[in-house]
Write a structure and sequence with these properties.
Blueprint (H helix, E strand, L loop, with lengths): L1 H10 L2 H4 L13 H6 L6 H12 L10 H5 L6 H5 L6 H15 L4 H14 L3 H16 L2 H8 L9 H5 L8 H5 L4 E2 L7 E5 L4 H5 L1 H14 L1 E5 L8 H5 L3 H16 L5 E4 L2 H8 L1 H4 L4 H13 E3 H7 L11 E6 L2 H5 L5 H8 L4 E3 L15 H4 L1 H18 L3 E4 L2 H13 L7 E4 H8 L4
Parallel strand pairs: 2-3, 2-4, 4-5, 6-7, 6-8, 8-9
Antiparallel strand pairs: 1-3
Helix pairs in contact: 4-7, 14-26, 16-19, 20-22, 24-25
């Protein structure tokens, strides 16, 4: 019994729960506590549940499922915590432990295996997905599906999300993305660009604009072959072993190039890349290589700022507001660079919203699997957005971008209000289409 309890403690990262002094500083920054008002849906409440499980006071781990699964994983509690509790590591371990013990139905298990093992890690599969989405949008099938109302009957509110899906690039444009691009003018740095999986399939235009902005700023840019999904969706879904394997594949791939930085343009992906050393901390050889990887990992806003910004052709006279990516802010600790880049655009008035660092409710696929909880958080966020009277909402993460687009539709603010990725906004100001 004692041996099995010790094994469970290790599995749950129990020792990290001892740093929590239950002070409550995390409560006012936790979106789910603020909207649900329950201790079990607060960081200290969730930590206490994991602690009780590690001490044998909770023997049925399914008790943890609802509190753990309803956590956004925004990590704002870590920023607020005075004792440095590693909440992300505790949450990740709890999710993995629950996933190992959960019996999924055959269809769900099959879907998870296909997505996590065959689709997200495969560049070929994501390319097929992107090209298929382009055909769906351009062939008339999308309009026909919307007209007959089939999409409204899809599970997980997929029809709602389908309506805000971005227009993807054509197969021809997708295949034209170069493997290398030289700096415009004097070279300042060499950057390896992380394309991602969802970003590459659905947001490749943002990837292309990112590469062009890096080149304009003075970077030689390399698209590393054999790179794969960052593993964030896997880790957030409890598939921790798959996440570790993807981390190793990326480390091997990026080690092949001598670069100053490994650059990403998605807050969630960047946070995962940034924490590869924590993910592989139990494997000595990989841990050291992951540390070297982490040291080079940068959000694109950091690199553009290091380069001195980008030349701006024009600035539209308008009010904008910035929706922070939780993982960019709370994990990568990138605060000032996106704001600095926005403020450098002439005629743009940046209006900070109230509770600017509060999560928007997207959180990977949280808004899909926990739709109602996500929408409650989004509605609160949009109330703060409306008070700024901004006509553009700028984000730094694809999930946040889609969530803001959904918020605009829910508040009937379209077309007078739009949502753009920071890269799209900078490219627009630089005269790049």
């Amino acid at each position: 019994m004692e041996r099995s309890l010790e094994a469970l403690r290790k599995e749950l990262n129990y020792e990290k729960t001892n740093n929590c002094v239950q002070c409550g500083y995390c409560l006012p920054v936790c979106p789910t506590y603020m909207t649900m008002g329950k201790e079990t849906h607060s960081p200290r409440g969730r930590i206490n549940l994991v602690k009780m499980a590690g001490e044998g006071k909770i023997t049925d781990l399914s008790v943890l499922e609802d509190p753990i699964n309803l956590c956004l994983g925004c990590r704002a509690c870590e920023t607020a915590c005075p004792t440095g509790v590693e909440y992300g590591a505790i949450l990740e371990s709890a999710k993995a432990a629950l996933t190992r013990r959960k019996t999924f139905s055959v269809p769900v298990k099959t879907l998870r295996n296909v997505l996590f093992k065959k689709v997200f890690p495969s560049k070929k599969a994501m390319k097929v997905l992107g090209n298929g989405l382009w055909f769906y949008q351009k062939s008339g099938v999308q309009k026909a599906m919307q007209k007959v109302g089939v999409l409204e009957k899809l599970p997980y509110h997929m029809g709602t999300f389908e309506a805000i899906t971005p227009n993807v690039v054509s197969p021809k444009e997708r295949s034209s993305l170069p493997n290398r691009i030289n700096a415009r003018g004097k070279r300042k740095y060499t950057a390896a660009f992380f394309t991602g999986c969802i970003m590459d399939a659905m947001f490749q235009r943002i990837n292309r604009l990112s590469i062009e902005l890096l080149a304009i700023a003075g970077c030689d840019v390399v698209i590393v072959e054999n790179q794969t999904c960052c593993g964030a969706l896997h880790a957030h879904s409890g598939e921790i072993e798959e996440a570790r394997e993807l981390a190793k594949r990326n480390i091997i791939a990026f080690e092949q190039e001598k670069v100053d930085f490994i650059v990403n343009n998605a807050g969630g992906c960047g946070a995962m890349l940034y924490e590869y050393d924590h993910l592989l901390s139990d494997e000595a050889e990989w841990h050291e290589r992951a540390k070297q990887f982490r040291m080079k990992s940068k959000d694109i806003s950091e690199v553009l700022d290091l380069c001195g910004g980008i030349p701006i052709e024009k600035g539209k006279a308008e009010r904008v507001t910035y929706q922070r990516s939780c993982h960019l802010t709370n994990v990568q600790k990138v605060h000032k660079e996106p704001l600095k880049l926005i403020k450098a655009i002439p005629n743009v008035q940046l209006i900070e919203m109230n509770e600017a660092e509060m999560c928007c409710g997207s959180a990977g696929i949280y808004n899909v699997v926990n739709y109602e909880a996500s929408m409650e958080i989004l509605d609160k966020k949009m109330g703060n957005v409306k008070k700024t009277e901004a006509t553009t909402i700028i984000t730094t993460n694809p999930g946040c971008l889609l969530q803001m687009k959904l918020g605009i539709e829910r508040e009937n603010l379209s077309p007078q209000v739009r949502a753009l990725h920071l890269i799209e906004y900078l490219a627009e100001a630089a005269g790049i289409s």
